[in-house]
Amino acid sequence: MRILPLTLISVAAITLAAGVYFYWEHSARYPSTDDAYLDANTVRVAPLVGGRVARVYVRDQQHVRRNDRLFDIDPAPFSLTLREAEARLALAQQGAASALGELRAAEAEVKNREVLLGNAKTIASRNAHLVAQGFLSHQSGDDAAAAVKSAAAELALAQAKAYQARMALGNKGEQNEHVREALAALGKAQLDLQHTQVSAACDGVITEFALHPGDTLQENAPVFALICEQEYWVDANFKETQLDRIRPGQPAEIRVDMYPNKIFAGKVENIGGATGAAFSLLPPQNATGNWVKVTQRVPVRIAVTQRDPRFPLRVGTSASVTVDTTSLRHP
């Protein structure tokens, strides 16, 4: 009569031990966590130029495609700036052409003075020979020598004016500094005018939207958000003791709290290089006498590889993740 209870106790103990072992083994091979949240690339939409909103094409929670028009900034001031830049470019080109003409005139004057100097030297040389033979007075020789000096001075003056004209001109044609400056101003004016039309950077959903015609926007100041739908992932925070078998590329199952009966397929993309507390505003200081060891958590990024349009995902919602470490294991 006493053997039966002992047998039952033994069987129960063995069953319990087997259950604990299989639970531990399953937990080791399929680590899971419910400290996980959905995320996606979010674009903060901001105009690249400031101004008054002229027209709005979307509304809150609307789905948009890449390059769809979102809203327009009043283009009138930028159109005026563009016309002003075009006029400044025309003036710069005219100025460059005028400076080039002045340079050519100065260079021609230099050549003329070079000819006059050569002629004066020839006359001075001939007069000096005739003075030496007594056919001309010394005064004639002195006058010829003075004419040479005067021609040399005029040549130097012409060369200085040519150098000044060359410096005033700078580079020729479209490489002229004033022309390049005007071209840059024209390009900026054209770009600013294009930036008055704000378009979607990706396929996604508009959120945090509160924009109306007549609102005045500042340059580079975000006005609403665009959640891009090309890629969703889960930031799963696993305990550091669970990371021994987790590797990038391993498959995972994702359960979103919004849809408890739906399983999404996922894949481990990467494992964080630090715990979440390492870069917090007030990181833990463990060099104290009252230190208590606390298991830390490391973020693991799980890409959502299969989505279902019947179950739209929401950024920031809670999820649970289970990783299959039996696949793509490494020693």
Report on this structure.
The protein is an alpha+beta fold and 331 residues long. The chain has a domain at 77-192: Helix Hairpins (Orthogonal Bundle), CATH 1.10.287. It is built from four helices and twelve strands; from the N terminus they run H-E-E-E-E-H-H-H-E-E-E-E-E-E-E-E. The protein has helices at residues 3-29, 76-133, 138-169, 177-194; strands spanning 32-45, 51-56, 63-64, 69-73, 197-199, 204-207, 216-217, 224-239, 251-256, 263-271, 297-304, 318-323. The mean pLDDT is 83.
List its salient traits:
41% helix, 331 residues, six-stranded antiparallel beta barrel, Helix Hairpins, single chain, alpha+beta
CATH class of the domain at 77-192: Mainly Alpha
- Taking all Cα atoms into account, the compactness measure Rg is 42 Å
Shape: elongated
Q: Could you estimate the helical fraction of the residues in percent?
A: 40-55%
Topology:
Layout: H1 3-29, E1 32-45, E2 51-56, E3 63-64, E4 69-73, H2 76-133, H3 138-169, H4 177-194, E5 197-199, E6 204-207, E7 216-217, E8 224-239, E9 251-256, E10 263-271, E11 297-304, E12 318-323
Antiparallel strand pairs: 1-8, 1-12, 2-4, 2-7, 3-6, 4-5, 6-8, 8-11, 9-10, 9-12, 10-11
Helix pairs in contact: 2-3, 2-4
